[in-house]
Design brief:
With 427 residues, this protein is an all-alpha fold. It has one domain: Growth Hormone, Chain: A. Helix content is 79%, strand content 2%. It has 15 helices and 2 strands. A two-stranded antiparallel sheet has the order 1-2. Strand 1 and strand 2 form a beta hairpin. The protein is globular and about 55 Å long. One of its GO terms (cellular component) is plasma membrane. This is ACDE family multidrug resistance protein. It is a multi-pass membrane protein. One of its GO terms (molecular function) is transmembrane transporter activity.
Length: 427
């Protein structure tokens, strides 16, 4: 908690209040509930609606895929018209999608496709929440405080993942479809608090034409595309593995041990708590030190590789849980460091779109995890050793592409970080 107060005091004025940082942290926390809260009840939904495992996994996929597609558009809108005018309506849309899904669930299995429609609407709303909140945090906090604040945001995201299986299991004691009615209860107060209590830096009255916006983005990608591509891959792969493993663990606990309800939620929360705690610590520790961020990213990817390589050969449940905790720790090392690198490496005019593109591939990683792990459940060596190989290759690419940061000044006079071999002077 002391770190939260340190960040809150760092930038002065209204923006430095713990209240403001708490509101911003609530956005990713609520967003992550959209998928994680359903994980422990997916087998129940499958049974109640009499649908297949693949069909029930679509409740995750059809939330994440639309979010991944719409996020870049939300980023463009936030760059041109402000972050709050995107985040607040998106939260309300996210809640409305939950209502539609909940009412469809009450009607029973015949309304399965309407449930999917509600999940799609939720995904569209989610596109304008956490990714844009990350860009807003980057606008509000500078230098070393930015990595600390982003670490808190990523920790809030992780905390949502920790709380959500337990919360999902508790709410499911009332009814499994009661989960979906939780979303509007949470999103409406946060949307109102964000609108009235968070002030963002003023945007220019006349937004630049889209052609200039495209030019800036193309220049950024040409200059830094090599390491940005690796960073995007690392973020997507980390969440692909994390959500795939959670889907596997939920099914494993129920089918092998008959563990369900709150106990299953508590067990699912263990690797997520490891990730959240590590994210909080890493965000506070790295500051703007690219060498440390690079080290954490590479170590985290190698931990994911080792963890995935071990899974097919483990028969002891306690060793399996320890392995999944190691995967959670590796994920916690990777994600806050990627957040800081990406948001600090681009100027404020294109920060929204670049951050959104990054979050888009993260969502796609989440979307693909459960169905791929389900489809390849019988080919466990291919699944787990293949992911271990991907994580190893990505770690080696990160080791090669992430360089010492530089600062240059763009034509509009704003200073930004770049990755390169030579240090340029700021003019």
């Amino acid at each position: 908690m002391r770190e939260v107060f340190d960040v809150a005091r760092a930038s002065g004025g209204n923006q430095n209040s713990v209240w403001v940082l708490s509101i911003l942290s609530a956005v990713p926390l609520i967003m992550v509930l959209g998928n994680s809260m359903l994980i422990p009840v997916l087998p129940t939904i499958e049974s109640e609606l009499k649908i297949s495992s693949l069909q029930v996994s679509l409740l995750i996929t059809l939330f994440s895929v639309p979010a991944g597609i719409i996020i870049p558009l939300a980023g463009i809108l936030s760059d041109r018209f402000g972050r709050k005018p995107v985040i607040a309506p998106a939260l309300l849309l996210y809640g409305a999608g939950g209502l539609i899904t909940g009412f469809a669930a009450i009607w029973g299995g015949g309304a399965y496709w309407l449930m999917l429609t509600g999940r799609i609407i939720q995904g569209v709303g989610a596109a304008g929440t956490a990714p844009i909140a990350m860009a807003l945090v980057s606008d509000l906090y500078k230098k070393g405080e930015r990595s600390n604040a982003l670490g808190i945001i990523e920790a809030a995201n992780g905390l949502g993942k920790v709380v959500s299986p337990i919360l999902g299991s508790l709410i499911a004691l009332i009814s499994w479809y009661a989960l979906f009615f939780t979303f509007p209860v949470l999103t409406v107060p946060v949307a109102l608090a964000l609108w009235f209590f968070v002030s963002e830096p003023a945007k220019r009255k006349d937004p630049p034409p889209l052609s200039r916006y495209k030019e800036n983005l193309v220049k950024t990608w040409k200059r830094q595309g090599k390491w940005l591509l690796v960073a995007f891959l690392a973020g997507a792969l980390t969440l692909f593995i994390l959500f795939g493993v959670l889907f596997f663990l939920s099914d494993f606990l129920e089918k092998r041990y008959g563990i369900d309800g709150i106990l299953k939620g508590l067990i699912l929360a263990i690797p997520l708590l490891a990730m959240s705690s590590t994210s909080f610590w890493a965000g506070h520790h790295v500051k703007q030190k690219t060498r440390i961020m690079k080290r954490f990213i590479v170590i985290g990817l190698f931990m994911l590789a080792a963890g995935m390589a071990i899974v097919p050969f483990v028969t002891n449940t306690y060793i399996l849980m320890a392995d999944l905790v190691a995967i959670g720790i590796g994920s916690g090392l990777i994600l806050p460091c990627l957040n800081t690198l990406i948001t600090s490496a681009v100027g404020s005019e294109e920060r929204g779109i670049v951050t959104s593109l990054y979050n888009s591939v993260r969502f796609l990683g989440v979307a693909l995890g459960p169905p791929v792990f389900e489809a390849l459940a019988d080919a466990k060596y291919l699944l787990y050793l293949g992911n271990a190989s991907l994580a190893t290759i990505t770690g080696l690419l990160a080791l090669w592409t992430i360089k010492k940061p530089e600062r240059i000044r763009n034509p509009h006079g704003r200073t930004r970080l770049i990755m390169g071999k030579k240090r340029l002077r700021t003019t």
